[in-house]
What we know:
Radius of gyration: 22 Å
CATH class of the largest domain: Alpha Beta
Number of strands: 13
Low-confidence stretches: none
Shape: globular
CATH topology of the largest domain: Nuclear Transport Factor 2, Chain: A
Distance between the termini: 52 Å
Strand content: 35-45%
Strand order of the largest sheet: 7-5-13-9-11
Helix content: 25-40%
Amino acid sequence: MLKYYLKAVYARDYRAAYERISVEDRKHKSEVDYLGENPSFLGPALELSSKLTDMIEFRNLRTEILADRATIKFSVRFPDANAPPLQKLLLEFDPDRLARLSIKEIQAVKKKLESMRGQGNLPMIEGEDSLELARENGQWRVLLGWAGAIRVRFVADVKEGLPWEFRPVQETVLAKPGETLQTFYKVRNLSSKAITAKARHLDEPKKQAAKYLEIIQCFCFIQVTLAPGEEKELPLVFRVHWEAPKDVKEFRVTYDFYPIEKFPQG
């Protein structure tokens, strides 16, 4: 269970990972929401990331069981997918570039990975971690504690008469500290002419958000132009920091879209 779940997460095969998450957690986050927040690899990208999972080493597993709960502590050694040699070999895990590889080229990459491992040249990371499990109907499943996760609420508004429909795809995302998650806003031009607009955002409460909420990728950094009737999904990638204190229960992220000529300056 432990190895299956962690390997699925490492390979970014989140559909497989969700199958091993506790029923208790799944009451709070559906598979659709989970897969939307955690984009999975497909095709050659998944095939090659799964190859790397074969090289993960688990050591010193220690299990503490109390009734229907268990804590597993372990040491792990795994390929550093962010190391330059692997980034170069795996085309920076760009799904589009990997999808253009032939079967022969994919096999060559796999052989190169095996060769690097055999020669001791495969970049690796070592660390220790722990995972909670819950016994449900005689089976152990991963307990992530989504019931107590931090709620990140997303709000949308349009200003200065902008004739756009603008809303978050998910109004609330449950975020565990340290997770990097993705969500989307939808925007549609309701007018009969092309319009350029720009968004700005406000994170609340301000002091806590400044310290513990990181917006990694945001559509507010660019201008958005929509043709008449055009609709787009705008991605947003964020993370709640590991150090977020337990008394932090919720963040509120508000995005306001303005016509470009009326965007507030300063």
